[in-house]
Amino acid sequence: METQNAGAGRTTRGRVVMLVDNKVEGDSRVQKAAESAAAAGWDVVLLGLVRSGNGRTWKLGDAEVRLLPLKTPLAKRHAERHRSPLRRPLAYPPGPMSAYRRQWAKAWRADVATRRAALRVAPQAVGTPLFRKAEKVRLTVAGPVSKAVQKWVGFRSRQTSQAQKAGRALRGPLDRAFTASWKSLKGPRAWRRLEPVLWDYELTYGKEIDALKPDLIHANDFRMLGVGARAAIRARAAGRTCKLVWDAHEYLPGVRPWEDNAHWIPGNTSHESEYAPFADAVVTVSDGLGDLLKERHGLKEQPTVVLNAPDRPAGADELAEEISKDGKPVPDLRELCGIGPDVPLVVYSGSPGPQRGLGDMVEALPQLDGVHMAFVVPAPAAGYIQGLLRRAQELGAGDRLHAVPYVPHWQVVPFLSAANVGCIPIHHWPNHEIALITKFFEYSHARLPLVVSDVKTMSEVTRSTGQGEVCRAEDITDLVRAIKAVLADPEKYRAAYDTPGLLDNWTWEAQAEVLDGLYTKLVPGTGRTPGSGS
Question: What does the mean pLDDT of the chain come to?
Answer without folding.
Answer: 89
